[in-house]
Amino acid sequence: INAVSQAWLDATLRTYRHAPNTGSRKSWAAGDATSRGVRMALMAMTGEMGYPTALSAPGWGFYDRWFEGKPFSMQRHFGEYVMENVLFKIAAPAEFHGQTAVEAAFALHPQIKDRLDEVESITITTQESAARIIDKSGPLDNPADRDHCIQYMTAIGLIFGDLNADHYENETASDPRIDALRDVMTVVEDPRYTTEYLDPDKRSIANAVQVKFKDGSSTDKVEVEYPLGHRRRRDEAIPRLIDKLRYNVGTRFPSEQVEQIVALAESPAELESMPVPDFVELFLA
């Protein structure tokens, strides 16, 4: 049954990213799609035929079946734009529309940590996409559900001043302080955030967090417009990205192999000149 249900999800591309079916597949979907692309490329190199009207064939082509008969409309010529604007997850393992809310929560943590019982309300100001995708109330069923809830991620940041993968597991999720904060949160859209999120020259992913207390006082409204992994914060992010690489490969390989990989990552010229088989060899245990 599990395998059959997975097969049906292949065509409905975002089912596993939204309630009531949010699940762990969203964590491996990108790798799955990439592996399929590589496999198809290898098959084509060995002579597998192509299909010249796969997009435009009447009735059964992609445009008619999935795009209401409309052809693709590109915003720009193909070039380096996508790679130059890659977003890296660095500050926390959080769904990207909520990354800056988590960073704002980290900033507020010192003011909040000893006053959790005094919190009256929390306002999260966000973009339309976050409000639509990760604004969730009620029970959260699993880690995949929790890391797609802006209220949960923000609450963790406020309570702990940190957010890592363990915070999505049941042990942490059972902490009553999390739902106590979620219950007093309000998510509102700022039209400017939405406009600048959609602006191809800005691509901001802004959020702001403000906490009000029962005595009438409040924190400042802490706003973060670009997450740490954004193109506009590259200089700040690269050292932490290298640390992330070192940590992750260190969970699989001995220290000497780890340092070889890290040294290569820090030497673009050497990486570009390295034969692909030699590169792949570095990642074999």
Labels describing this entry:
285 residues, alpha+beta, 60s Ribosomal Protein L30, Chain: A, 3 domains, 15 helices
Could you please describe the fold and organization of this structure?
The structure is a single chain. The protein is α+β, with helices and mostly antiparallel strands and 285 residues long. It is built from 15 helices and 4 strands. The chain has helices at 2-9, 25-45, 62-66, 81-84, 99-112, 128-133, 143-146, 150-160, 170-173, 176-182, 191-198, 234-250, 255-265, 268-273, 276-281, and strands at 119-126, 185-189, 207-213, 222-224. A 4-stranded mixed beta sheet has the order 2-1-3-4. A hairpin with an 8-residue loop joins strand 3 (207-213) and strand 4 (222-224). It starts with a helix and ends with a helix. The relative contact order is 0.11.
* Helix proportion: 40-55%
Query: What share of the residues does DSSP label as strand, in percent?
Result: 5-15%
CATH architecture of the largest domain: 2-Layer Sandwich
What count of domains describes the coordinates? 3
- CATH topology name of the largest domain, in short, is 60s Ribosomal Protein L30, Chain: A
Assembly state: single chain
Unreliable spans are none
**What is the helix tally?**
15
Beta strands, count: 4
Helix/strand-derived category reads alpha+beta
Encode the helix/strand succession as letters.
HHHHHEHHHHHEHEEHHHH
What gyration radius follows from the Cα positions, in whole Å? 22 Å
> End-to-end span in angstroms?
34 Å
| Shape verdict | globular
Superfamily at the CATH H level of the largest domain?
2-methylcitrate dehydratase PrpD
Main sheet strand line-up: 2-1-3-4
What is the average per-residue confidence, as pLDDT, rounded to a whole number?
A: 94
